[in-house]
Each structure stands twice: as structure tokens, then as C-alpha cells.
């Protein structure tokens, strides 16, 4: 229990240390690129690999260097020296920090982190406290309501962190705005966990009606969860994933040819033409690789949902694949790649939530947002309802 508490707070502790080191460097050498401030003759001198103790845990860290050019000697950093020896664990303090997080008193918990690792509270700026993932990202992601907008599209996908999946939900409004709705941690993209997650989104105001399109990569667990939570809503299967699943059964020379064939079939804007072309490819594949043919047939109808709705030409770029949410996943990965060991569930939640909320601030409207009215009208008419055959 004690080790778990320490590990849960290590990312916050490292951020506090980095902040304190940078403030000490600024006090000695002035602000970066500034010609005034700091002690005359004292300059920044790069950085070097080092290590510190957060309680009794030794951790690697890059340490900034400062040099006194007059004395021709390096200026030691008091913060770094303070953290060179292990210190006794104040269990009560750690429980208070974690208790603050659990009780949603995030800012108070964040303020206690420096003290928990032996840093003076005054050595960490208010910016660190305010930017704390626990203080802002988790609270905003898991508590905000979604009944303040009219939703038109829901995208679901999973990202692997260590041995677990973090399934993320991305919503698109009728105005074309994107929002990260929430996330759930699960061993696999299984039906029970994901269905409960979708119902929780409904409780927070994300209401699924017949006017909703769901975009998935083809994972059977996610598809079953959508059916259980939302009923017979239209589902667009990702054409990119379908194509790659099919060609994975073929030899490499054939993969190039069949990627092109499948792409040409999906490029038809008419539902009848696209389906006719795909059925012809199924017949051709049967003589080459029966497994590839069966893969193409499975869920084929749901890869043509936008075709059936009559909006693939206008909105295919945004919704015929899961690229919108894959892009979010890639950016989350880029922001969390420094973590080479995921120790606890809480750590995964904090890092993913903080990265996701930061990414969301940079969102733009979806491509073709001015044409979303066509999709909404098509869903309302129910003239091209997507078949709910097995996915």
C-alpha cells in the first residue's frame, strides 16, 4: 500500500522537482534568453543526467547546470542537493494527498505534493498547482456534463497502455465541434465494461437518439457495447481498418494490388455502385484466399453506412474512417511517451486525462462541418437506416 501511494504521486513529484530546479536556475542566471536578471557572470550551462530520491524511491532526472564564469566553477543547485538522500515516508501526509484526490479536493492535494517529497511549498510556483493534472484534467474530464450541446457523431477507439486498454470516446456536435467525452480503463475492449461506460456518458447528458452516427474500428466488443447501450443506431465501420484486415491475409505483392482495388471500390459515391464493386471483389478473392474473402464480407454493409445515408461525398473524409479519434490517440501517445513504466492505474488515468484535455483545447471543427445538416437530415428521415447485421 505504501509503495503504491508513492508510485501514484511520482509523476506529480517529478513535475514539482523540475519546476523547483528551473526556478532556482532562473534565480541564478535570469530568464532564458534574457540579457538582464540573475547574478552577473552566472550563466546557464546545459544539463546532465542525474538522479534524485522521492522519499525512498531513486529516479533518473535531467539536471540543469549553472556556471559562474568569473570563478570558473559550477554553481550547485540546493534543490538537487536536498533530494540526493532518501527520506522517511510520512504515510499520513501521503494519505492526505490521495484522500484529497479521492474527495475531489484536487487543488489542496496538489499543493501538498511538494511537501510530501521534501520540497518547500514556496519553491513550487502557483502555475504548477494550477496546471496539475489531478487538479484540473481529471475533474473536468470525469465530471463535466454533455447536455449543453446537440450531438451527431460518436467515435470510439482504444489505446494500449502497458497491459491495459484506455477506451476513449470522442463526440462531434451538429455544429462540427469535437469534444473528448470520457475514457474507461479495461483489459480489452469488452462488451460489459464498454457498455457501462456508454451508459455513464448518457447519465452525464450524452443522449443517443436515432439522430446519432457511431464510428468504430470494427472491434466486436465495442460494437456489441454500442448495440446494448444505444440499440439499433447507425454504425459506420472504419474502411481503413477493413481494408487492412483484408490484405493482411495476402502475400506482400498482392497486398499492394488489393489495397488499390478496395480503395477504388470504396471511392464510389453511389451506395449501389460501391456495394456492387465490393461484391465483385469478394468473388475474386474467393479464388485467391478464402479467408480474405470472408474478412471482406464480414460487416461489409456497415462499411457503407455513409454511402447508404447519401453523404459519403460530403462527409467521407471525416467519418468513413476512425482517423479523427486515431489522431487524438497518436497525440496522447506523443505526450505520454516519456513514461516507460506504467506503475499504477491512477497514473494511467492522470497522464491520459491531462494529455487528452490539453489536446482538446487545440481542436478545430471537423472537415465538412457545413454539410453536417445533410447527415442530420438523412438520419432523421430513416430512409437509409444502417443494417444491424453482425459486425
Principal-axes geometry comes out as elongated
- How many structural domains does the protein architecture include? 2
How many beta strands in the DSSP annotation? 8
Main β-sheet, spatial strand arrangement: 6-5-4-7-8
Secondary structure topology:
Blueprint lengths: L1 H28 L12 E13 L2 E12 L4 E2 L3 H5 L8 H12 L3 H11 L9 H5 L2 H11 L7 E11 L2 E10 L4 E9 L4 H13 L9 E4 L3 H11 L4 E3 L1 H9 L4 H15 L4 H18 L1 H8 L7 H5 L2 H8 L3 H14 L8 H16 L11 H10 L10
Parallel strand pairs: 4-7, 7-8
Antiparallel strand pairs: 1-2, 2-3, 4-5, 5-6
Helix pairs in contact: 1-3, 1-4, 3-4, 4-6, 6-16, 7-8, 9-10, 9-12, 10-11, 11-12, 15-16
Report on this structure:
The chain has 391 residues and is an alpha/beta fold. The protein folds into two domains: 2-131, no CATH class; 150-381, no CATH class. 51% of the residues lie in helices and 16% in strands. Mean pLDDT is 81; it is low at 125-135 and 383-391.
Offer a concise description of the structure.
Helices cover 51% and strands 16% of the residues.
Question: Could you name the key traits of this structure?
Answer:
elongated, 391 residues, 17 helices, 2 domains, disordered C terminus, 3-stranded antiparallel sheet, alpha/beta
Amino acid at each position: 500500500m505504501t509503495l503504491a501511494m508513492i508510485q501514484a504521486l511520482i509523476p506529480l513529484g517529478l513535475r514539482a522537482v523540475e519546476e523547483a530546479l528551473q526556478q532556482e536556475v532562473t534565480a541564478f542566471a535570469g530568464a532564458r534568453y534574457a540579457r538582464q536578471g540573475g547574478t552577473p557572470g552566472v550563466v546557464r550551462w546545459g544539463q546532465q543526467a542525474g538522479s534524485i530520491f522521492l522519499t525512498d524511491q531513486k529516479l533518473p532526472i535531467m539536471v540543469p547546470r549553472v556556471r559562474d564564469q568569473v570563478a570558473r566553477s559550477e554553481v550547485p543547485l540546493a534543490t538537487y542537493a536536498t533530494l540526493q538522500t532518501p527520506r522517511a515516508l510520512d504515510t499520513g501526509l501521503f494519505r492526505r494527498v490521495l484522500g484529497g484526490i479521492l474527495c475531489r479536493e484536487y487543488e489542496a492535494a496538489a499543493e501538498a505534493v511538494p511537501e510530501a517529497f521534501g520540497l518547500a511549498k514556496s519553491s513550487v510556483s502557483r502555475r504548477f498547482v494550477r496546471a496539475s493534472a489531478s487538479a484540473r484534467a481529471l475533474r473536468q474530464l470525469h465530471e463535466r456534463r454533455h447536455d449543453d450541446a446537440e450531438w451527431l457523431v460518436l467515435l470510439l477507439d482504444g489505446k494500449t497502455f502497458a497491459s491495459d486498454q484506455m477506451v476513449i470516446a470522442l463526440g462531434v456536435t451538429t455544429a462540427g465541434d469535437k469534444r473528448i467525452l470520457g475514457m474507461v480503463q479495461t483489459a480489452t475492449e469488452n462488451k460489459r465494461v464498454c457498455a457501462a461506460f456508454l451508459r455513464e456518458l448518457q447519465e452525464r447528458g450524452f443522449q443517443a437518439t436515432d439522430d446519432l452516427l457511431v464510428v468504430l474500428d470494427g472491434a466486436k466488443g465495442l460494437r456489441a457495447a454500442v448495440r446494448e447501450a444505444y440499440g439499433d443506431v447507425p454504425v459506420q465501420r472504419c474502411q481503413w481498418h477493413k481494408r487492412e484486415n483484408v490484405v493482411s491475409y495476402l502475400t506482400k505483392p498482392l497486398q499492394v494490388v488489393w489495397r488499390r482495388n478496395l480503395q477504388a471500390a470504396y471511392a464510389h459515391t453511389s451506395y449501389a455502385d460501391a456495394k456492387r464493386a465490393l461484391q465483385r471483389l469478394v468473388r475474386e478473392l474467393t479464388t485467391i484466399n478464402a479467408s480474405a474473402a470472408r474478412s471482406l464480407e464480414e460487416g461489409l454493409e456497415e462499411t457503407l453506412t455513409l454511402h447508404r445515408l447519401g453523404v459519403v461525398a460530403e462527409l467521407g473524409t471525416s467519418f468513413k474512417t476512425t482517423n479523427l479519434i486515431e489522431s487524438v490517440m497518436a497525440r496522447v501517445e506523443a505526450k505520454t511517451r516519456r513514461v516507460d513504466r506504467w506503475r499504477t492505474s491512477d497514473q494511467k488515468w492522470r497522464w491520459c486525462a491531462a494529455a487528452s484535455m490539453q489536446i482538446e483545447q487545440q481542436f478545430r471543427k471537423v472537415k465538412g462541418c457545413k454539410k453536417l445538416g445533410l447527415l442530420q437530415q438523412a438520419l432523421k428521415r430513416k430512409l437509409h437506416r444502417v443494417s444491424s447485421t453482425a459486425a
